[in-house]
């Protein structure tokens, strides 16, 4: 177990940042002992936290799988040199924050005194008595530097893997990697994605992509006129059985209407609906819907 990483993992767990470790787990960037620390913490965590952690691991693994789901090909010439260069650049940025100390075995004693550790007491200071609190401040500075370096190392590890992924993906088209990471694209391109078109009162239509594997829907408006001044379109999710609708957001301009809306964790029996509301939206629908789309996964 790398003690620097292990200590950082313990700190993250103690401070409630377990979800930040999901990508490291997906990248296999922790060893068995470090993974055991994370698993032990998750066993006592809330169910929602465990599910969110598993989702983030799964999505990262799926993104990597989709990014590399391509025909086998010879790697580009010099690929490994490019990867090593990226890693070296990242490592140098971390090392730049480390204080370089003289080697006592090869440095004369008088030079060691002149190259004292930053923040330490000089001989004159020691003769006059240590300044109160100075040693504690030096210890705190060292602790902060150590913690920052550990975080930088962890960020460097993820960055190095990501850099390698981008280099490899670049051989087949970086746009494919970007699209694979886009949750909207994942719904639209899912093998089980189904499209339905629903007319919008007042003109235009709403196109809805539904994916049961993603448990998500993507809503795209087409040729729908912008709302009148002082009003806005508001998107709602009505639960199974017709309970209180949940607001999913506002579409107040032509620019808003041109952007796809992602609705996650949808269930069969729920309903997407759009109403016209006063500018700024409403806590609940106040007008008859101009678009209604039942969800069937």
From TrEMBL:
GO molecular function, one term: sigma factor antagonist activity
The protein's name: Regulator of SigK
Membrane-traversing stretches: 155-178
Intracellular or extracellular location(s): Cell membrane; Membrane
GO-annotated cellular components: plasma membrane
Domain of life: Bacteria
Domain Anti-sigma-K factor RskA N-terminal per the UniProt entry, residue ranges: 18-65
Species: Psychromicrobium lacuslunae
Pfam entry (one): RskA_C
Chloroplast keyword on record: no
Biological processes, Gene Ontology terms: regulation of translation
Residues in Anti-sigma K factor RskA C-terminal domain copies: 159-290
Main location: membrane
Key words of the record: Cell membrane, Membrane, Transcription, Transcription regulation, Transmembrane, Transmembrane helix
Topology in the lipid bilayer: Single-pass membrane protein
